[in-house]
Amino acid sequence: MKIVKRLSLASLILLALVGRAAAEPAKLTVDFGFFPKGTACQVFNTTGKVSLRTGREIEYTIKGDTGNVVFRCTQPDGRSFEVAIGALLPQGNPSLVAIQINQDDHAHILWDQGGLRRSTVAGVLKWK
Description:
By secondary structure, the chain is mainly beta. It has one helix and ten strands; from the N terminus they run αββββββββββ. The strands form two sheets. The protein has a six-stranded mixed β-sheet with strand order 3-4-1-7-8-9, with no helix packed on it. Strands 2-5-6-10 form a four-stranded antiparallel β-sheet, with no helix packed on it. A hairpin with a 5-residue loop joins strand 5 (70-74) and strand 6. The model is unreliable at 1-20 (pLDDT under 50). Residues 1-23 form the signal peptide.
């Protein structure tokens, strides 16, 4: 009987953790703002549709399979960094998430969940 109770408790804890995990939005926009001209990024861990728009900033739009996206970028001076987006996704079930990654090592995250929400996260660039 104790094993059944332990399994039940373990199952409840697992379900609670899964329920609190960030949902994978159907559309993800990631904007690399204020990086030097010539910074190039590659997208990993997605089978979704990836669109790239460049101008003053580098902006990626990903539709589908957005939960574990990783960007690896190289700046013109040869320095490179990686950003794992999955950890930045908000809790709940937003259909759209927009993230601006800044060279000052902060990410600004916007999403709609019963109104526009905003969060800022420090320490997002993993320099290589």
